[in-house]
Amino acid sequence: MAVLAYKHLFFDLDRTLWDFETNSETALGEILFELDLIGQVPSSEEFISRYREINEHYWNLYRLGQMEKSVLRVIRFQKALEAFGIQDSALSERFANRYVEVSPQKTHLMEGAVEALEYLKSRQYAMHIITNGFEEVQHIKLDRSGLQPYFDLVLTSEIVGRRKPDPRVFDHALNHVGAETDNSIMIGDDLGADIVGAREFGMDQIFYNPNSHEHSEKVTHEISSLHQLCELL
Question: Which end of the chain has the smaller Cβ count within 10 Å, N or C?
Fold first, then answer.
């Protein structure tokens, strides 16, 4: 595979480098136990499964600018608890607060993340993060998981006031580090936010697709393992 010539690598964080599903599941299980909810739901697995569906729905509304962050933080837990007959607004608030405290402390990374980053660092790429995640938790994730030193810029959509795939997010990131579209590439797992967003902005993209989801989008490159970055770059 030919090695590509870029100077700036822009990464997504959640589900691209930081293992969101594993870390979230661990945090949710701990909080269910902490708040004495284990006996009030059929099982932690059922609660987590239902929460994921609800969270995905409301997160999409947030990404589209149709829901405020302050509402999203709580309503996803409120609706998940209500799905099991638990109607308690104070409890929903406590769950929400504990989640944003506990989950970013988890450190499980996507397979091959460290090895790929070490290799790319040795190749002297300038590496950056562009994430739609909350400002107050993304930096903690990077610090606790040991990823922070690899990146020059960590840009959250909250700082820009727009969310991927809005082109203004990519424009802000490239301007901040003095990069150009022709020497930059976006690497991420979200086909819409990361890949189509970067493509429409004029950047090349690497779609990280570990589960080999079928799609019809035109992408610059597609990988199923982060180890493949070492061959591509």
Answer: N
| Whole-number Å distance between alpha carbons of 150 and 127 | 7
pTM of the model: 0.94
Domains of the chain: 8-19+109-232 (3.40.50.1000), 21-105 (1.10.150.240)
Nearest to 31 by CA among 79, 101, 83: 101
Q: How high is the pLDDT of residue 1? A: 52
Measured between alpha carbons, how far is 156 from 232 in angstroms, rounded to an integer? 26
Helix, strand or coil for residue 126? strand
- 116 and 226 in contact (C-beta within 8 Å)? yes
179 φ, ψ (degrees, to nearest 5) = -95, 160
pLDDT tens per residue across span 153-183: 999 999 999 999 999 999 999 999 999 999 9
Lookup result for tokens 């739901």: 41
